[in-house]
């Protein structure tokens, strides 16, 4: 079991914002909490990003790093000034290192009510095929 988990592991890699890049937006950045589920054919990542919809989420895959960024625009009622807040508003950013056994071409992402669902299909096993030798 441990070997299987190690082979198909989606490694969590939380990057410190100040060490990785400069921000151009004057907002807090939160690391969204995520649950990771695995089946025989896929890995599913479910992340909470309240205040984000499909237009405000940017997901990129470069090499083996999957990066999720969610942008949240504060919405205050007209005619009111915020005097006290217990809920912090900010953007979301999280990265994951993917193993080579993920089919990068068929990753699917959906969002509903501030919950992002990423489906990472596992690549099938390498198939044996015959290589024809041709004369020169």
User: Regions with pLDDT < 50 over 5+ consecutive residues?
Assistant: 1-20
| CATH class bucket of one domain | Mainly Beta
Helix content: under 10%
Tell me what the CATH architecture of one domain is: Sandwich
What summary fits the major beta sheet?
A: 5 strands, mixed
Number of helices: 2
Tell the overall outline: elongated
Report the order of strands and helices. Answer: HEHEEEEEEEE
The class by helix and strand makeup works out as: mainly beta
Please tell me the overall pLDDT. Answer: 80
Strand content: 35-45%
The beta-strand count equals 9
- Kindly report how far apart the N and C termini lie: 49 Å
**CATH fold-level name of one domain:** Immunoglobulin-like
Radius of gyration: 20 Å
Task: Please characterize this protein's 3D structure.
- It is built from 2 helices and 9 strands; from the N terminus they run αβαββββββββ.
- The chain has 136 residues and is mainly beta.
- It has a domain at 10-16 and 30-76 and 86-121: Immunoglobulin-like (Sandwich), CATH 2.60.40.
- Strands 1, 2, 5, 6 and 7 form a 5-stranded mixed beta sheet that branches. A 4-stranded antiparallel beta sheet has the order 3-4-9-8, with no helix packed on it.
- A hairpin with a 3-residue loop joins β3 (34-38) and β4 (42-48).
- The longest helix is centred in the first third of the chain and has 6 residues, at 2-7.
- The model is unreliable at 1-20 (pLDDT under 50).
